[in-house]
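Incident log, structure service

09:12 report received: a user says their structure output differs between two submissions of the same chain.
09:20 pulled the input from the user's history:
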Amino acid sequence: MPVIEVNQQEAVFEYAAGDTLLRAGLRAGLGMPYECGVGACGCCRCEVIEGEVADLWPAAPGLSERDRRKGRVLACQSRPLGDARIRLRLDPQGKPALRPARRTATLTAVRDVTHDIREFVFRSDAPAEFLPGQYALLALPGLDRERAYSMANLPNAAGEWHFRIRKVAGGGASEVLFSQLAVGTAIGLDGPYGMAHLRTDSPRDIVCIAGGSGLAPMLSVARGVAAEPALAGRKLDFFYGGRTPADICGQSELAALPGFGETIRYHAAVSDADAAARAGWSGPVGPIHEAVEATLGARLGEAEFYLAGPPPMVEALQQLLQLHHKLPPERIHFDRFF
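09:34 re-ran on a clean worker, output below:
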């Protein structure tokens, strides 16, 4: 196996065929910097000092032209062609609590959640091991690159992986999942990945904020809170934002959790005022970050936040929490996807 040396022997790990630099490092237990794992966020930029790597996605948005001119690559989109030496910033806080592994998973069930979000249930032979809020990379038939999707359920010995996936017009993965993938089809599943997982050592109340298919990891976090004895009695506020009332979902799943209506509370907001009026929507109208601030008031400054949704939603929440309310970044958890 090729050997990869990091930062002049700060760390050394072996590369197995089919992996990327990032995945091989994480499987070795290193604190490799990353968020999305699929070439979009740019967090895993590194320099190849010696050796050659194959670029799996030359047009990946996570790498700027300036990065390319300086010889940088994305660890998540690079496969070494032999022994190599690389330079990147290792982060001890980023060491994976659970090392990712490849497995085969079979589609066992499908159901519609909204007009454009569908739940896909896969089962693997081995237990489904992950932390609430993490994601996996799915190798779908006919696609040249894997896609990242978050789990909505909890880790389990039965090997079930539940994904809430939104249909994207013109999306290759959407076409496969919503039109071609039949129950009984086996795919590749690699995980778990992601740093925005539930922290059980925080003494604070918890706020989950989701939009679109960001529902999945936030449901997993909420379910994790309800199932974790160390968090018994902890207050959880769950916010979901949609463009129209037809987009709103998640309340029925939360209602099945112990403490719903008492320690667990659900809030929804619709951003399209015309659609809200046509549908007779009686809840808050406007961006979800405005609903968060109006609902929580002074409690906002005392909570631990988990975010998942479209980039504009996450950016607006960052401004609200960090710039306006001065929350430290270590209390705001999200993985960037674009």
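09:41 both user submissions now match this output. Likely a transient worker issue. Closing.
09:42 reviewer note: The first helix runs from residue 21 to 27. The mean pLDDT is 94.
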